[in-house]
């Protein structure tokens, strides 16, 4: 348990307050953070899972040609499935899953197991093959969905790419890893707060103690 507290303390270094005017105030304890996600109202932005590093997108303007794309590796597939199972075990509801048009993002969203996946150019990596205007539009689209309050009692998942995340949210995300999640809280007025960044394997660590954690609090 002591080692788990250390891991949680390290993870929550990324936290800002779920409510309140200043992130300099103390971070909410784990119970509050998990329970908040269980109540819905958050947008969770994932970078797609880990991929085969010997592959490249050789036809980036043709995302329907799956064979010319970088794909999830076995670990990326396993972690995507594990993330979905962990969210379910933690009783964190997901109502919508939006992804990039690239197959590695679609597969990440699908393997989480939350039902229909809606793929869109809004969350697709553009890079140097689309205009700066289009890249800016996609960054704005990602910020827009993060600022949009989800349907009551649910959270929204978006699976996208590192360039989109950095372009939308800034240089603090330059080190975002494959499979990493960034949790945002829409404020209901067209803005949002970043809440926490979570590496792909941390979800399963949290879920390991889900039963004892959930039984310690009135979460019904």
Topology of helices and strands:
Elements: H1 2-11, H2 30-38, E1 43-47, H3 74-89, E2 94-99, H4 103-111, E3 117-119, H5 132-146, E4 155-160, H6 162-169, E5 181-186, E6 192-198, H7 202-208, H8 210-214
Parallel strand pairs: 1-4, 2-3, 2-4
Antiparallel strand pairs: 1-5, 5-6
Structure description:
This protein has 220 residues and is an alpha/beta fold. The chain is built from eight helices and six strands. β5 and β6 form a beta hairpin. 36% of the residues are buried. The model is unreliable at 1-28 (pLDDT under 50).
Distance from N terminus to C terminus (CA atoms, Å) equals 25 Å
- Based on CA inertia axes, which overall geometry fits? globular
Got a strand count? 6
Q: Estimate what percentage of residues fall within beta strands.
A: 15-25%
The helix count comes to: 8
Order of helices and strands: HHEHEHEHEHEEHH
Mean pLDDT level:
84
What are the defining features of this structure?
alpha/beta, six-stranded mixed beta sheet, 8 helices, globular
Task: Describe this structure in a few short sentences.
The protein has 220 residues and is of the alpha/beta class. Helices cover 36% and strands 15% of the residues.
């Amino acid at each position: 348990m002591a080692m788990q507290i250390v891991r949680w303390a390290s993870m929550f270094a990324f936290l800002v307050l779920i409510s309140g005017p200043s992130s300099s105030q103390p971070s909410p304890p784990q119970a509050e953070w998990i329970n908040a996600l269980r109540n819905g109202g958050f947008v969770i932005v994932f970078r797609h899972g880990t991929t085969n590093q010997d592959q490249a997108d050789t036809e980036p303007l043709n995302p329907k040609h799956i064979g010319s794309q970088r794909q999830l590796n076995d670990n990326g597939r396993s972690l995507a499935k594990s993330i979905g199972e962990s969210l379910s075990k933690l009783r964190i509801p997901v109502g919508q899953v939006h992804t990039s048009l690239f197959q590695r993002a679609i597969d990440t969203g699908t393997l989480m197991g939350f039902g229909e996946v809606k793929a869109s150019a809004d969350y697709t990596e553009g890079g140097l093959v689309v205009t700066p205007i289009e890249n800016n539009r996609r960054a704005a689209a990602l910020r827009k969905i993060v600022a949009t309050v989800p349907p009551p009692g649910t959270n929204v998942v978006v699976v996208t790419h590192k360039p989109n995340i950095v372009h939308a949210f800034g240089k603090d995300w330059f080190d975002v890893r494959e499979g990493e999640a960034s949790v945002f809280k829409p404020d209901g007025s067209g803005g949002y707060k970043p809440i926490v960044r979570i590496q792909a394997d941390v979800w399963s660590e949290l879920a390991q103690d889900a039963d004892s954690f959930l039984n310690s609090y009135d979460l019904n």
